[in-house]
């Protein structure tokens, strides 16, 4: 009886030791989000705003639509023109949604 319990404990410990790194790796990936994709419709550098036709943004429960966003830093709009394909990070703040990162995907 003692020997059987010892074997079960060794097998359980070994299985846990093998599975733990895999589970930790999967958990780290779940925290990362792919940046939403979109197309620049209009850029208003003076107001620090950009109109984006974007695909669905599931983590914000947004369907695909065209929307005007405030940007965190107006300098992020440099070099962007209507028609550019982009990836962007949008965050919720007290005033609505703000773009905190833009990558040109052309």
Automatic annotation (TrEMBL):
Domain of life (superkingdom): Bacteria
Keyword match Signal: yes
Keyword annotations from UniProtKB, A to Z: Signal
Residues of the signal peptide: 1-19
The keyword Signal appears for this protein: yes
Coiled-coil zones: none
Name of the protein: Cu and Ag efflux protein CusF
Biological source species: Enhydrobacter aerosaccus
């Amino acid at each position: 009886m003692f020997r059987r319990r010892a074997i079960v404990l060794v097998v359980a410990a070994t299985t846990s030791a093998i599975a733990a790194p895999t589970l930790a790796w999967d958990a780290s990936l779940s925290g990362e989000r792919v940046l939403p994709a979109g197309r620049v419709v209009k850029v208003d550098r003076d107001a620090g705003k950009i109109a984006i036709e974007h695909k669905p943004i599931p983590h914000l429960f947004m369907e695909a639509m065209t929307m005007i966003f405030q940007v965190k830093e107006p300098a992020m709009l440099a070099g962007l023109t209507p028609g550019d394909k982009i990836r962007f990070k949008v965050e919720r703040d007290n005033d609505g949604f703000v773009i905190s990162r833009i990558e040109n995907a052309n």
